Amino acid sequence: MKISATKSTLRQIRTEATAIFIPEDKNLFDTEISSLKKIFGKSILDLLKSENFHGKENETISFYTHNKLPAKRLYLAGIGKIEKVSLEIIRRAAANVAKHAEILKIKNISYRPLISGIEKNNKLPFEKIAQAIIEGSMLSLYKFDKYLTENKKDRVRIKTITLFDSLDSNIRILKNIIHKTEIICNATYLARDLANAPANEIYPETLAKIATESARKYGYSAVVWDKKRIEKEGFGGLIAVNSGSAKPPCFIILEHNPEISNPDTIVLVGKGITFDSGGISIKPSAGMSEMKMDMSGAAAVIGTMEAAARLRLPIRLIGLIPATENLPSGSAMKPGDIIKHYGGKTSEVDNTDAEGRLILADALVYAQKFDPELIIDIATLTGACVVALGNHATGMMGNDENIMARLKEAGETTYERVWQLPLFEEYEKQIKSDVADVKNVGGRWAGAITAALFLKKFFPKNKDYKWIHLDIAGTAILEEPQTYIPKGASGVGVRLLIEFLKNWKSGDHTRQ
């Protein structure tokens, strides 16, 4: 798919279909329709009446132009009241157009980013509107269809998306934002592909291979530890979880801008369980196939590293991915086992299906070797988070209110929203073990919180590391599609983290 910008007007743009955004407000609506009436005559009024189109949010209509415009078909995408228009509303409107156009086997579409009344009544920046249009249209067209053999050749894909404007200054803005947004969307595609792929395609070694290929292609580094090295370093959690699998584990270390000094070092840690059966504490068979996506945190880290390198973000960024399967066998980890993690802390295994925190613990301690300003882990960690927040918000916990506020702001911008849950010390008694430093489950209540508190145990009390935990169990795996997010893997985390990281230097985040 090619995204481009061109200097043109509605009367000049030559694509199969073109789209404009129509506010609901009467004066703005009438202004837009009056300009269309000059092109189509009174027939446009009859059409609007018959389609009951008023510019409301999620209203979309299209019609043939009958050679009155170079474009064969014109889309009108409603965006609601102008003062309430958000980037997400624009994303969804663009997505609705793109998906409908693809159904009609249209190969190229264009959008006019200029929205009547937006500058005066809303103040959304032109470049942000353009980015939202690209995101909505591009992300909505994603399909994981590599294994489909029937009717695949009959599918007509949209090949080009064009943004047009009549001002040279706006075209320069569009070309810049297109380049950046394409990178972010392609990284999201990568995260979706990795998580959607079956476990017989993506397992620790192949996940490491793809990360290494990305690093080689886009100029960041990748080092992969094999099982022997993992054992030698003492990653007891990763070895224990892997003990039931015939496929060996990997520990993937990715790095962007290694020469930048420590105050600008951020470490991302992604859970890489390439298939999670639950181990000895086996999951119910219904829905277990979704557990190929239990490495969505790892996928988000790889996508974010690729995008950060391609965007040349001026920070030192490190990605750590402990990768393994969690399977039952005669050699598998068992309830009651005690694990010695990297760094020496011990944990009692009460439930082998609480395995993600065991491998993250090793990686979080290793992350501290880089003396980073911030550590963020991202993981499909708990079903309890899905119960608490559903599929529309990522659970966020951590020890720095300022950084969590900035992640929340990035979440609102990208609509990969996060919601803070508490880490009150009263919850800690639920993970107290009689035989080890900590227990890997805390009972039925507050499961997302006790999982985060387990991870918190692996940070030393005498050092002030800033740490954020993102539980994406509900947002990474979707049972029903959303406007521009398909059923299955959402690729969540890539756009959120890039939006946060690109603004890192502008925030107050220095150590106290």
Mean pLDDT: 95
Task: Tell me the strand percentage band.
Answer: 15-25%
Our Rg estimate from Cα atoms comes to: 25 Å
Q: Count the strands?
A: 20
The biggest sheet amounts to: 9 strands, mixed
Main structural class: alpha/beta
Number of DSSP helices? 16
User: Helicity, in percent?
Assistant: 25-40%
CA(first)-CA(last) distance: 47 Å
- Spans of 5+ residues with little confidence (pLDDT < 50)? none
- The backbone outline, from C-alpha atoms, is elongated
List keywords for this structure.
single chain; 512 residues; alpha/beta; nine-stranded mixed sheet; six-stranded mixed sheet; 37% helix
Fold and architecture overview:
This protein is α/β, with parallel strands linked by helices and 512 residues long. Helix content is 37%, strand content 19%. Strands 7, 8, 9, 10, 11, 14, 15, 16 and 18 form a 9-stranded mixed sheet that branches. Strands 1-6-5-2-4-3 form a 6-stranded mixed sheet, with helices on both faces. A 3-stranded mixed sheet has the order 12-13-17. The longest helix is centred in the middle third of the chain and has 29 residues, at 168-196. It is elongated.
Topology record:
Blueprint: E1 2-7, E2 17-22, H1 26-40, H2 43-51, E3 60-64, E4 73-78, H3 87-103, E5 108-111, H4 118-121, H5 126-140, E6 160-165, H6 168-196, H7 204-218, E7 221-225, H8 227-233, H9 236-242, E8 250-256, E9 265-270, E10 272-276, H10 296-311, E11 316-326, E12 338-340, E13 346-348, H11 356-367, E14 374-379, H12 383-389, E15 394-398, H13 401-414, E16 418-420, E17 438-439, H14 447-456, E18 467-471, H15 473-476, E19 477-478, E20 488-489, H16 494-502
Parallel strand pairs: 1-6, 2-4, 2-5, 5-6, 9-11, 9-14, 10-11, 13-17, 14-18, 15-16
Antiparallel strand pairs: 3-4, 7-8, 8-11, 12-13, 15-18, 19-20
Helix pairs in contact: 3-5, 5-6, 6-10, 7-10, 9-11, 10-16, 11-14, 13-16
